[in-house]
Write a structure and sequence with these properties.
The chain is mostly helical. It has helices at residues 30-53, 60-85, 93-110, 115-139, 144-162, 174-181, 191-209, 211-221, 223-228, 233-259, 270-280, 292-311, 316-340; strands spanning 10-11, 17-18, 168-169, 261-262.
Length: 341
């Protein structure tokens, strides 16, 4: 059954009443589950290989490091999942994250605001970036690639201008670092991973059990038919990009808390890794298909690859080559799946 058969509850343009069956944002359809199973099997195979190749890979310290490094990529990928399901793209999440990190430094250090308020404002600033992207795409009709590419450059420049091209250190706000590196559970387990787990749960609920999630799938599957059903596609697109921006803002807070400073140039390349995680996890670049579980698996694959290749002392340039090949395989698998469908 296609998303065209899943119209929202209520009358359609010719007066018929239809019911939309909510897609499952976590697991997806049988075909999506097969894709996730293959991705999960790939993750297990990669883990087993690095466990054999490096004796330090399966240590508790290294596993914690992998989870820690997954946080930022995972948060960016969660927001990007919604955008790509609508057949859009967001290239601004990396530099947008850096700008949000800088703004958190401005709020907490420069303006002396309480840490909770500064964190909230930084996350909302990310939502503002997403809102602008959504308006550019949905209202002005700009292609998502061009709109978010422009925002990527704007965010990159603003991060440097606002910070005066210098890091903003959180030495006067030690509680800020505990947002990421603290241990809420009283064990050697960073808070950042708990934040990612909570974000995964929230995003899965939104995608699988809310109107926003259903319309995300519907817009990506057939935007014109969705509009003809009486749905305000422009408004929902703006909401989707704004939601992605909120995840970008949260990622900015987490990376600056982990580093103990807001680095204005720290976001370069993160957008590619986040998009790669989403694609590897089975979300279709053509839109209409994607799951949160697949995105989580994709983010773990990226982190495990980065960590394992570093342990094996593989040069950075070859790490990029391997990651690029993994992305090509994931895209080919998506094309093969569509052909079979």
């Amino acid at each position: 059954m296609t998303i065209l058969d899943k119209k929202p509850d209520g009358p359609d343009p010719v007066g018929r009443t239809t019911v939309m069956r909510a897609p499952t944002g976590w697991a997806g359809t049988a075909m999506d589950q097969l894709q996730q199973l293959l991705a999960f099997a790939s993750l297990i195979a990669i883990v087993l290989y690095f466990s054999w190749a490096s004796p330090t890979f399966m240590t508790y310290y290294n596993i914690t490091n992998i989870l820690f490094s997954t946080v930022v990529i995972g948060l960016l990928a969660l927001g990007t999942t919604f955008v790509i399901i609508t057949s859009g793209i967001d290239l601004s999440i990396g530099t947008g994250m850096a700008l949000c990190a800088v703004m958190s430094g401005v709020f907490v250090i420069n303006l002396g605001l309480p840490v909770p308020l500064g964190v909230l404002l930084a996350i909302l600033f990310g939502g503002l970036i997403g809102l602008v992207n959504g308006v550019n795409v949905a209202v002005l009709g700009l292609p998502p690639f061009i709109a978010t590419l422009a925002m990527m450059l704007v965010a990159q420049g603003l991060a440097l201008v606002i910070s005066d091209s210098a890091p903003i250190y959180f030495t006067d706000a030690p509680s800020y670092r505990k947002i990421s590196t603290g241990e809420l559970l009283g064990v050697d387990f960073p808070n950042a991973v708990l934040v990612l787990i909570l974000a995964v749960i929230v995003s899965a609920v939104i995608l699988g059990w809310t109107v926003l999630g259903r319309y995300t799938y519907s817009i990506g599957s057939n935007e014109e038919a969705t509009a003809l059903s009486g749905i305000n596609v422009r408004g929902w697109k703006i909401a989707i990009y704004t939601l992605a921006g909120l995840f970008t803002g949260l990622a900015g807070v987490m990376i600056s808390a982990r580093l103990g400073s807001a680095q204005p140039a720290t976001g370069a390349g993160y957008e590619l890794q986040a998009i790669a995680a989403v694609v590897i996890g089975g979300t279709s670049l053509a839109g209409g298909k994607g799951t949160i579980s697949g995105t989580v698996i994709g983010a773990l694959i990226i982190s495990v690859l980065n960590n394992g290749l570093q342990l094996l002392s593989i040069p950075q340039e070859w790490q990029n080559v391997i990651l690029g090949l993994v992305i090509l395989v994931a895209v080919y698998a998506d094309m093969f799946r569509k052909q079979r469908a």
